[in-house]
């Protein structure tokens, strides 16, 4: 059976809203079952739909990412969010391949032409962002090799098809690339291309640690 979660929201913390949350939960549970879904979790918020910082919402997004969820059930599209928050969340659901069902639509949420266009534009923009990121990695790898970086000396398990994940960053290579004019961001992107889990902050920290050690000697 397909798996679903319920998301219930009211806009204020007034006690009178508790009844509305309970009603949403009951109605959505029945609705999900009629649509052939098994309800795995229920998330609730008493918060404005214009805000993304909602405990229930964030917990739901974490659950969707960690578990195999096929659909989210809501009372109507405004329960998920309002304004830009609504579009952003619909985009997140689309990326996670999670279908949104609305009780008000008696099925999958019905979006207007404008919403469809915006979501399509967001998908196109993200695709080009990925292409740009990949191009940066390739450029960084080329510059790194030109500047003396030798990945074959650092990659673990050569020939391993499962990847090149590294727990330790090559500090000497970070220093070398930095001294050859690359920024911490460029170095991080380059190391990611070579299979390291490297962030700009981590690269910067390792470089500073090296500097501090050099100064203390």
Specify the biggest β-sheet.
5 strands, mixed
- Largest sheet: spatial strand order: 2-1-3-4-5
* Helix content percent band: 40-55%
- N-to-C series of helices and strands: EHEHEHHEEHHHH
Gross morphology: elongated
Q: Report the uncertain regions.
A: 155-167
> What's the count of strands?
5
Summarize model confidence as the mean pLDDT: 81
Strand content bin: 5-15%
How would you describe this protein?
- There is one protein chain.
- The protein is an alpha/beta fold.
- It has helices spanning 17-34, 55-66, 77-80, 83-95, 113-146, 171-179, 184-193, 200-216, and strands at 2-10, 37-46, 71-74, 99-102, 107-108.
- Helices cover 54% and strands 13% of the residues.
- The radius of gyration is 24 Å and the shape is elongated.
- The relative contact order is 0.09.
- Residues 155-167 have low confidence and may be disordered.
Which labels suit this protein?
alpha/beta; elongated; 8 helices; 217 residues
Quick take:
This protein is of the alpha/beta class. It has 8 helices and 5 strands.
Q: How are the SSEs placed, and which strands pair?
A:
Layout: E1 2-10, H1 17-34, E2 37-46, H2 55-66, E3 71-74, H3 77-80, H4 83-95, E4 99-102, E5 107-108, H5 113-146, H6 171-179, H7 184-193, H8 200-216
Parallel strand pairs: 1-2, 1-3, 3-4
Antiparallel strand pairs: 4-5
Helix pairs in contact: 4-5, 5-7, 6-8, 7-8
